[in-house]
Automatic annotation (TrEMBL):
Residues 83-259 form the Methyltransferase FkbM domain. GO terms for cellular component: endoplasmic reticulum membrane; Golgi apparatus; late endosome membrane; plasma membrane. GO terms for biological process: endoplasmic reticulum to Golgi vesicle-mediated transport; endosomal transport. Gene3D superfamilies: Vaccinia Virus protein VP39. This is Methyltransferase FkbM domain-containing protein. InterPro entries: EGF_Rcpt_Signaling_Reg, FkbM_mtfrase, SAM-dependent_MTases_sf. It comes from Halocaridina rubra. Coiled coil: none annotated. The lineage of its organism: Eukaryota, Metazoa, Ecdysozoa, Arthropoda, Crustacea.
Length: 298
């Protein structure tokens, strides 16, 4: 009834437990869109889109793609999460797995403009126009969307830096681009997965512009029975004024049964890859790790 819906809208602002049946039902019915069908509509398939496709050979993307292939090419199709999915193609760390290796997954993007572009790509993954909560309950936040001018709507270099107003990145991002603020609903990652009845995730790509520490900490401490094999996390060391390895962040994973696979330092912020010690991917991934990363981690 109307009264119940008003009450639930208040509850959505927190606190509700990540596994609350009412929350899971709402997420399943209202926040998850089914995988697309038909032909992919990708800019990478059109040679004329040179400016857009420039990322394929820059911004550290080739390095990450090589590492993802090394870890997963001998593994059967799995399930991925990509948080910070943008338009579902630009800098995507999961498109290769989906398109070439028949993986399934979930794409999460809070920017409604980027999400509208994502839906047109016909990705074979679930999608959700929301943000990941820093806490263990759903919460309304303010999303800071960036552009080079007040009238720009498709500036990917800036949109890739979108973040919540409460993020430690917010002040830095707003200093280099025009910022608009829009309300956005955030959910715990656990809630999104439980709503999909997913309890095993093979790969998470987390690019959430400064929110990763809180999200990771809450998930690793309160997983609600969900296992994650491999994490790829873009992370800037918040404990230092210069870009350097964050050993506190590494310890969050290694103290909970993960090993650091590598850190890519080709582009700032760094990307950290962790693999669960008891996962099927662990031994084959470390056995086939490129020599340059063996040297880097020694």
């Amino acid at each position: 009834c109307y009264r119940d819906s008003i009450l639930f809208s208040v509850l959505l602002e927190g606190p509700l437990s990540p596994d609350d049946p009412r929350l899971l039902a709402y997420v399943k019915e209202s926040m998850l869109l089914a995988p697309g069908s038909g032909m992919y509509e990708l800019k990478m398939d059109v040679p004329e889109n040179r400016a857009y496709n420039n990322y394929l050979s820059h911004l550290g993307f080739p390095v990450l793609k090589k590492l993802i292939k090394t870890i997963f090419d001998d593994q059967p199709p799995g399930f991925f999460i990509e948080a910070g999915a943008l338009d579902g193609e630009y800098l995507s760390n999961t498109l290769y797995l989906e398109r070439e290796k028949a993986w399934k997954g979930l794409l999460i993007e809070p920017d409604s403009k980027m999400f509208s572009f994502l839906l047109k790509k016909n990705r074979r993954a679930w999608s959700s126009n929301c943000c990941l909560a820093k806490d263990l309950y759903p919460k309304k936040e303010m999303l800071m969307t960036l552009s080079n001018t007040r009238y720009s709507s498709y500036g990917f270099g800036y949109r890739a830096m979108n973040t919540l107003a409460s993020s430690p990145y917010a002040a830095m991002s707003s200093a280099v681009a025009h910022a608009d603020y829009v309300p956005v609903q955030c959910f715990p990652l656990q809630s999104l997965l439980l709503a999909l009845d997913v309890t095993h995730v093979d790969f998470i790509s987390l690019d959430v512009e400064g929110l990763e520490e809180d999200i990771v900490e809450k998930f690793l401490e309160y997983s609600y029975g969900i296992e994650v094999d491999v994490w790829l996390v873009e992370h800037k060391n918040s404990h230092s004024n210069v870009e350097e390895t964050d050993y506190v962040f590494i310890n969050r994973f290694t103290s909970r049964g993960y090993s650091l696979y590598t850190i890519t330092q080709d582009f700032s912020p760094y990307n950290y890859i962790f693999i669960r010690n008891s996962s099927k991917a662990f031994h084959s991934a470390f056995h086939r790790r490129p020599l340059e990363y063996d040297k880097q981690m020694s």
